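Feature request disguised as a bug report, sorry. It would help if multi-protein outputs had a clear separator. Right now it looks like this:
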Amino acid sequence: MTTVPAEAPPAPQVLPSSVLRLHALTRTTQGDRVVVGRADTGRFVAIPAVGLRALDLLDEGRSVAEVEREVTPDDAPEPVDVLAFARSLVALGFVAEVDDARSDGASAEAGPARGFVVAPRARARWLFSRAGAVLAALCGVAVVAMLVAVPSVRPHALDVFFLDSPARSLAVVTVVTYVLAGLHELAHVMAAAALGVPARLRITRRLYFLTFETNLTGLWALPPRRRVGPLLAGMAFDVVVLAAALALRAAGIGPDRLLAAVALVELSAIVVQFFVFLRSDVYAVMTALLGCTHLQRTTRLLLRRAVRRLTPDERATLAATPPRDLAVARWYRFVHVAGMVLATWFFVVLFVPSTWHLLTWMRDSLVSAGPTSGAFWEALVLGVLLLSPRVLTAVVAVRDLVARRGAADTRPSRPPVGRSA
């Protein structure tokens, strides 16, 4: 039996005489803007000082028309459009009631929140306190010391081939990468939980790299420096695992070849986090400490303006961009372009040929071995594992393309932190 969902009640109409009752909203200074939002729904928006003043007056129970008169300077050529501002608050789900009429959540214009919400109880808080930070820092120092002083434990590109065949080795490394990437994201989740912030998990991509992502939008409710811990928690986990693998190898304990592969995977994961053009964990920390809210969007607009005329909407968006974002984007755009050139080179020289080689190997293995042989099924399982990151990336790309159609970027850049698989 098919059940037809009931239609949602229409949003209450906001008039100049309307009085709004707002939900509990957080207010956090970010550069020259204030990020306002609801930690319970993960919706945040960056507004200028006049917007914050209007919000505070609306929260006091003043009517829209009264607030408009209050915030409009005497010498202003036209009044501040508080009516449009109030209607946008309703669309974002920031308003509980309009003239005693209930407002039911955010509209579709505010953009869908994707992923699975995870809000576990805070456990092992010390791991995500200063003691945990000190432990991770000591592990980082130990990693550098071992790489310098013990040449035999330095990762090598061929360390991934630690089994009797390259295909089996790469398949196991793929599984190990999935597991470590999942634990990396769990570290983000637990660090956020220690601060009372829920996380949203999803599978996404950065360019053509499959990425497990923890969306920590709720961190916008915290001052920038308090966001750093959860944003770096994943890298701290990677450093601890890398230090343990190198220490075990140096001491001659455990399966050395497997530990070497794990060390290579973790070292690669840490290095990739410094590719800020991929919106990595380091990028999230950088934007938080620099006071940016729309750095990626601003960078794209500046680059587009350099090669073509912007559309009227793009010009208006760039004109309304916070000065702090513009100042950082002026130098960050060169980093972004250099990173994209590097990613393009990697895609053409390594990614496409390796993918074609995997497809060719899988085809030849399946054709040469009949379906009744064990070699056939081994090749099938190994091929599926080896190609799974690429297939999932393609699926995610199609999903994002469909979701992006008609969507507008109206909120501050989320602090999504993730690790490529």
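(second protein starts here, but nothing in the output says so)
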Amino acid sequence: MPAAGNPPPGSTQATQVVAGPPPRRPRWLVPGVIALVVVLVAGILWWVSTPSSPQQPTGNAPVAVPSGVGPAPTGTGKTLDVAADGSKQFRTIADAAAQAKPGDTVLIQPGSYEGFRAPASGTDGQWITYEAAPGGAVEINGGDGSDNGRIDLSDRSFVRVAGLSVQKADRFGIYAEDTSNIVLDKVEVADSRHGGIVFLNGSKITVQYANVHGNNSLGTDAEMEAISMDNVDGFEIVGCTVTGNGEEGIDAKYESRNGRIHGNTASDNRGPNIYIDSAYDIVVSDNKVSGASGPGKTGIMLGVEDYSDTRRLANIDIVNNVVTGNNGGGIGFFTESDGTFSDVRIVNNTIVGNENAGLVLGNTNLSGTNVLRNNLFAGNEQDVKGRSGSTLTADHNLFAAAGVGTDNVTGVPEFVDQPAGDLRLEPGTPGTGAGSPDGAPPADIAGAARPQDKAPDIGAYQTVE
């Protein structure tokens, strides 16, 4: 979880540290000595069973991450029908799950159901699917599958959950520890006391088109985030709506790696709306990020917290995002006490109307090759706050006043319809045709192609004339 946010990237000049509210410790540990002992023992067992340390970051090449595990195969086995009114084969999901074999589909009719823990795994090509039948909402709103979650997928693999609505969990909505090859498809997770969707120590995880809202109802006492990836190797979070949660929106942390967070709407969470903490080889692209409300909380934050074993963030792409109206700034860097940041690329983002600053730098020390290019800053309290203490290549950005780097544009752009949220540039306004093709994504956030034979526009959108 992020601590309150001050620190961050910017120019190549020496930096001043801007004091901020004291950082909070991560909250995923259960209070009490017993819980601490359990966690320590689990950690020791995990370390002993792990053959080697996580793979080191790949250097300064742009991240090329496969699209998660892709779509899970459709069921090839039998269908196990569930209806709460007794009109089908099973009354409870748990009873059907106990009979499910690889390739089977547990088809759940509209109604209200108890939570469940998945008792079995599928196999490669023979997934087990838990799916809502058409015709109405399937609400998982009573009882928990375990002490950790209303639905608990821990220790399972090749499982798909589709169309279920998980409501008001006592702890987490959907919880999965030591899992692999899991797909959550079009699920809703709402109003959990703690985090919404939590993956811990997993691999090959996809969360797609989920609606995650109103979680962390305990506020700052809640554990985990709306969507948490904690030490997950290979993940994709795509097309999700993550809004109105009492802590972070989407959080990839503590050695999570090889991930892609794209095409999401993350808004009005306490914030940050998207947080990358002590993780590496991750792409954050094509997201709309707005309204982080917590003190010092930026829309997108890159951080290093003390809870991490490595205190290292590396090889991160922040591209094609629209970042607006966040309380603590647009994009920010945070260091709890010390750590390393390297090979960060912030390219073709539209950063508009944020309090504090568009880019919050603090005195972040960067190493490797770091790029700030083709970003549009407009209407922020100030464009850049703080100075980077290390190497940063900054060029072809649009600032309201003199900014950092070279080949910049200074001015106030005109948008197609800013009050309606349409932040495409009007033809001929500052920023059009003023970017660099070097590292620019081939298409903009709306899918429009950027030109290959001339300079692209600055920002997340490409003007189509």
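Even a blank line would do. Unrelated, but nice: The CA atoms of residues 56 and 193 lie 35 Å apart.
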